UniProtKB/TrEMBL annotation:
<comment type="similarity">
    <text>Belongs to the SelA family.</text>
</comment>
<protein>
    <recommendedName>
        <fullName>L-seryl-tRNA(Sec) selenium transferase</fullName>
        <ecNumber>2.9.1.1</ecNumber>
    </recommendedName>
</protein>
<dbReference type="GO" id="GO:0001717">
    <property type="term" value="P:conversion of seryl-tRNAsec to selenocys-tRNAsec"/>
</dbReference>
<dbReference type="InterPro" id="IPR018319">
    <property type="entry name" value="SelA-like"/>
</dbReference>
<dbReference type="Pfam" id="PF12390">
    <property type="entry name" value="Se-cys_synth_N"/>
</dbReference>
<keyword id="KW-0808">Transferase</keyword>
<keyword id="KW-0648">Protein biosynthesis</keyword>
<keyword id="KW-0711">Selenium</keyword>
<dbReference type="GO" id="GO:0005737">
    <property type="term" value="C:cytoplasm"/>
</dbReference>
<comment type="function">
    <text>Converts seryl-tRNA(Sec) to selenocysteinyl-tRNA(Sec) required for selenoprotein biosynthesis.</text>
</comment>
<dbReference type="GO" id="GO:0004125">
    <property type="term" value="F:L-seryl-tRNA(Sec) selenium transferase activity"/>
</dbReference>
<feature type="domain" description="L-seryl-tRNA selenium transferase N-terminal">
    <location>
        <begin position="17"/>
        <end position="56"/>
    </location>
</feature>
<keyword id="KW-0663">Pyridoxal phosphate</keyword>
<dbReference type="InterPro" id="IPR004534">
    <property type="entry name" value="SelA_trans"/>
</dbReference>
<feature type="modified residue" description="N6-(pyridoxal phosphate)lysine">
    <location>
        <position position="289"/>
    </location>
</feature>
<dbReference type="InterPro" id="IPR025862">
    <property type="entry name" value="SelA_trans_N_dom"/>
</dbReference>
<dbReference type="Pfam" id="PF03841">
    <property type="entry name" value="SelA"/>
</dbReference>
Length: 447
């Protein structure tokens, strides 16, 4: 038997070390063997090493190394971790915006293998890529004669500007020169395509006469951009799609949020159908904001323009994958999205959920109470709109502990408390949320 010297030099330490199971023995544990098959042996070996280390440090008993290694295994190896969005921001950019519906997740799973994305199974002949998703889109927006899908809203704008306006002018209001976030500015994006911007009006007021004066032989189209992340109030004036349609040049409206039809709770948020019906030639939008689908960019409108845009060589570089098409179609044809459910959530029901969570956690001795809260739509649109909500209020130190816990929860800090806002948390996640709070409570009470 080998008599290794332990770091602390005690016979007890040496004894413990001798009893730590060896790696090859641990890898024969059925649970770990199965995990190696599922996740890859590298991940399992790392968990085993970590568990052995914990036993060596005296944190666990040698008999518990296998169990510990199993507990340390990640659920998936995607790198991205699933989190509970308790920020009260329904579409949180840093949390990946819209959460896909169960139907969309299943569609993604189904599409992950070989699919008929570009093949007609009946005839065995090549078919238009994503034709069923595009048909679903047109069904939801009857005024759109044609549709095309690209990687995101920014890509939709780049493609339109490149295909229709390279070397020409895009007429745009000075009040709509928007920064969309993280330093990205739409004017820079548009100019990068080789189009020139013809700015009209002022920050707060732009009239139809301002646009009319700028239209000329160099004009490719008029672009109207929805200010989706800020609001200008007071002495303001803008021209709507109906007025712009009288100018005799194509009108492109970037609605941002991806609402296909008016939303009763968000009356100021533009939607594709209304804009097209009013006279817009093309509408561009994101798929993962208020539409509640996967990241993608939608292009809807006149057949001729959509054809020109979708046949431009750049379209090939911006095309979406089959997973996106599958998720988009399921979002369009399936049940209510988590985004729509969060927006429509009844405040009284949210309050009851917060009360229930607070009372079960209080029973565990946690300093917790249910409070009223104000949620927002987020980077996805409807700036300035607050949605009455309810939250579980915990001591501030919970914020960091919950983020880094086994089930990561992202809350928000307010007046020295950590609030877990329930507006964007699906009701079926309440038990997971309670468990997440409990799982980070123990060490704090011990210490
Ligand atoms: C979000 C947004 C964009 C960018 O869309 P992405 O899908 O994030 O690329 C462009 N324009 C408006 C008005 C937006 O709100």
């Amino acid at each position: 038997m080998d008599q290794r010297i332990t770091t602390d030099g005690t016979a007890n330490g040496a004894d413990v070390r001798r009893r730590i199971p060896r790696t090859d023995a641990l890898l024969r544990d059925v649970r770990l063997a199965e995990a190696a098959h599922r996740l890859g042996s590298g991940v399992v070996k790392a968990a085993v090493r970590q568990a052995q280390e914990r036993a060596r440090d005296g944190a666990i008993a040698p008999e518990d190394v296998a169990d510990s290694a199993v507990a340390l295994l990640p659920r998936t190896i995607g790198g991205l971790r699933s989190v509970i969005n308790a920020t009260g921001v329904v579409l949180h950019t840093n949390l990946g915006r819209a959460s896909l519906s169960t139907a969309a997740r299943q569609a993604v799973q189904e599409a992950a293998g070989p699919t008929d994305v570009e093949l007609d199974l009946r005839t065995g002949v090549r078919a238009r890529r994503g034709r069923t998703a595009l048909a679903a889109l047109r069904e939801r927006v009857p005024s759109a004669a044609a549709a095309h899908v690209v990687n995101n809203g920014a890509a939709a704008l780049v493609l339109v500007a490149t295909a229709l306006a390279a070397g020409k002018e895009i007429v745009i209001s000075r009040g709509e020169m928007v920064e969309i976030g993280d330093g990205f500015r739409l004017p820079d994006l548009l100019v990068s395509t080789g189009a020139r911007l013809r700015e009209v009006g002022t920050t707060n007021r732009t009239t139809i006469a301002d646009y009319a004066a700028a239209i000329g032989p160099e004009t490719a189209f008029v672009l109207k951009v929805h200010p989706s992340n800020f609001r200008i109030t007071g002495f303001t004036r803008t021209a709507d799609a109906g007025e712009l349609a009288t100018l005799g040049v194509p009108v492109v409206v970037d609605i941002g949020s991806g609402l296909l039809a008016p939303h009763p709770l968000l009356p100021d948020e533009p939607d594709a159908e209304t804009q097209l019906r009013a006279g817009a030639s093309l509408v561009t939008a994101s798929g993962d904001k208020l539409l509640g689908g996967p990241q993608c960019g939608l292009l809807l409108g006149e057949e001729e323009l959509v054809r020109t845009v979708s046949r431009h060589p750049l379209a090939r570089a911006l095309r979406v994958d089959k997973l996106t098409l599958a998720a988009l179609e399921a979002t369009l044809t399936g049940p209510e999205t988590p985004t729509a459910a969060s927006l429509a959530a009844d405040p009284a029901r949210l309050a009851r959920r917060a009360e229930r969570l607070a009372s079960t956690l209080a029973a565990d001795g946690i300093d917790v109470r249910a409070v009223e809260s104000a949620a927002t739509v987020g980077g996805g649109g409807a700036p300035g709109v607050t949605l009455p909500s309810a939250a579980v209020s915990l001591p501030e130190r919970y914020a960091a502990a919950l983020r880094t816990g086994p089930v990561p929860v992202v809350g928000r800090l307010e007046s020295g408390r950590c609030l877990l806002d329930l507006r964007a948390v699906p009701p079926e996640d309440d038990e997971r949320l309670a468990e997440a709070v409990r799982s980070v409570t123990e060490p704090a009470t011990e210490g």
